[in-house]
Specification:
This protein is α/β, with parallel strands linked by helices and about 400 residues long. The chain has helices at about 80-85, 95-105, 115-125, 205-215, 230-245, 255-265, 275-280, 310-320, 325-335, 350-355, 360-365, 390-400, and strands spanning about 25-30, 45, 55-60, 85-90, 110-115, 125-130, 150-155, 155, 160-165, 170, 195-200, 245-250, 270, 285-290, 295-305, 335-340, 365-370. α1 links the parallel β3 (about 55-60) and β4.
Length: about 400
């Protein structure tokens, strides 16, 4: 089951670190302006891997690093330890902000970063560019997860994709009629369901409003929902403040959202596929889909700390977690589409990848994956300054009142 993600932000630290390699190293990056608007410091990448250091320290979302202690059927750590000799020490983080802070302590080797954290780690120099040639299973990762604006700069990968998911529109099929096709159901038409609309409780939800405005108010010129100039940002905030009058509950706990849809307290709002599945299994009359405007979503990336103390074991973990069988296990347990294209043949539920659209690249082209808004506009504009994420956090507090 997918575990709650509470997305918070902290300003990216400007501290620069000298990268530690595993065996030989080469320099990645030439200091040129990055296509993403970033100019990360040069960091060393390993050219070969040596013997494992005996352990690896990981930061992860709950459900990503399972050793059987939470569920005897969920254990992909024990075999990794046996095969590599690398003992896994893991720390569950409750938010992207916590992940960034923990990585800066220097006590961890790798992290399963979402898009709103990965860009911060790249920009600050905390994440090292990854030599994908040293991760054999990377070859089988879906192309749509490679070279993303949230996990690479100028064609240089800064991690190994783990999985992906979309933020969907869910509605009660008995109380919301006719069936919605657009995000207008929770924005312009939200008044029809006043007090029973739900929205994801996070500053990153501002991007959902921006995505809707991109389609419905083209005069704003929004190209990327994570690259908003002040005028565009103000329009998204205004839309969310208007929506607030109709919100019954902002959610960040998937169990609470399931309960709200079962009881009728919520009848329409954002959700994840795993929540929709669980709600339907528990009797809620719901459907979930990607509206005509598209949706936001997440793509997680395993990133290596620039001064990792156990880089060899870290690379072994990166390859292990995206190996077909393990990636299939974690995807089913967590509730997301796997990253490895061969994982779908190994899921216990043979319909799993169809439900999660794992290999449907046309589906994922409609998803704007979470990214970290920065002053350098991610859409390539250089004549304006975009609103950084810290101000998204401030605005979110104002939106909720």
């Amino acid at each position: 089951m997918r575990i709650t993600r509470t997305l918070k932000v902290a300003a990216a630290a400007a501290a620069l670190f000298v990268a530690a390699g595993a065996c030989g190293t080469s320099e990645a990056g030439d200091g040129a302006a990055a296509t993403s608007g970033l100019n990360p410091p040069d960091r060393a990448t390993p050219t070969a891997l040596g013997k494992g250091e005996g352990q690896v320290n990981l930061i992860a979302w709950a459900g990503y690093v399972e050793d059987g202690s939470n569920d005897p059927k969920a254990d992909w750590v024990s075999d990794f330890e046996k095969q590599t000799g690398c003992k896994v020490n893991s720390k569950v983080a409750a938010s992207s902000d916590e992940m960034v802070k923990l990585m800066k302590t220097g006590e961890y080797d790798a992290v399963s970063a979402s898009g709103d954290a990965s860009l911060r780690l790249i920009a600050s120099g905390d994440a090292a560019p990854v030599n994908t040639d040293l991760v054999p299973n990377y070859e089988d990762v879906f192309d749509g997860l490679k070279d993303g604006s949230w996990n690479s700069v100028d064609g240089q990968m800064y991690g190994i994709p783990h999985g992906r998911g979309a933020n969907l529109l869910m509605y009660n099929t008995e109380k919301v009629t006719p069936a919605p096709t657009s995000w207008s159901a929770v924005f312009d038409d939200a008044g029809k369901y006043k007090g029973h609309v739900t929205a994801y409780d996070s500053p990153i939800y501002i991007a959902d409003a921006a995505l809707y405005l991109k389609a419905t108010q083209p005069d704003l010129g929004i190209k990327d929902p994570y690259a908003l100039d002040q005028k565009q940002f103000d329009a998204a905030v205004a839309l969310l403040k208007k929506q607030n009058a109709n919100i019954g509950e902002y959610w960040s706990d998937y169990l609470k959202e399931i309960s709200a849809f079962k009881s009728g307290d919520s009848v329409v709002g954002t959700t994840w596929q795993v929540i929709a599945n669980l709600a339907a299994d528990e009797g809620a009359k719901v459907k979930a889909f990607v509206p005509k405007e598209g949706s936001t979503g997440w793509s997680d990336t395993w990133m290596v700390y620039a001064k990792a103390k156990h880089p060899n074991c870290a690379y072994k973990w990166l390859d292990w977690i995206v190996s077909p069988r393990v990636n299939a296990q974690v995807a089913e347990y967590f509730g997301e589409a796997p990253a490895n294209s061969k994982a779908c043949d190994l899921t216990s539920d043979k319909n799993f990848c169809t439900v999660y659209h794992a290999s449907d690249e046309d589906y994922w082209k409609r998803i704007a994956f979470w990214n970290t808004p920065i002053e350098q506009c991610l859409d390539g504009r250089t004549d304006v300054t975009c609103v950084p994420y810290a101000k998204w956090v401030q605005a979110w507090t104002e939106i909720k009142g």
